[in-house]
UniProtKB/TrEMBL annotation:
Residues 1-67 form the HTH gntR-type domain. Coiled coil: none annotated. This is GntR family transcriptional regulator. It comes from Geobacillus uzenensis. SUPFAM superfamilies: GntR ligand-binding domain-like, Winged helix' DNA-binding domain. It holds the Pfam family GntR. CDD domains: WHTH_GntR (cd07377).
Amino acid sequence: MYAETLKHIHRLIVHDGLAPGDRLPSERELAERLGVGRSSVREALRALEFLGLIETRRGEGTYMREIGSHQLIDLLAMFLLENERAKADLAETKWLVERLLLELFCQRRSEEAISRLEKTVRQKPIDFERFFQTVAEEADNYLLVRIWRALSAFAAAFAPKPPLADSFYDQLLAALKKRDRTEAVAVWEAHRPWPLSKKN
């Protein structure tokens, strides 16, 4: 229901011709127009806000945002919303982007970032998105971070994954502390096999 609501909201935005700065209908109005529950609308709006496509202003409502110079993000979001066959490609692309971000993290990470990762790992159950948010931000590539956020938001809707074993985080954190790109990728691939979208 959540993924379908996301697609319906997108179509409504297109149908209404909403542009950056325009106000979206309220949660209640969206629920009535789409014939879904307000909880589904709320989750869909959170995903759109996470992607940077809308913003909520306290006491004012929800507004369309200016996407900015990286139009690829907007194209990616619309592609995933419209193309049901994109799910396999989504999983593969997310995996590849995350592996690349791990390698960049090894090159650019700070001790403060390692401390944040250690704190996240100590909190059980371990939140993968929170863990990897630190990795992504420290990789210091704004476009890759935006792409990863978009992929993560849609992956959560289309293909939720079971939690990873604590041993994965322990081994990965040890490799990241050493800035060992080869070991980090090896741990990644051992615990998260490449989700090939197409097979020969």
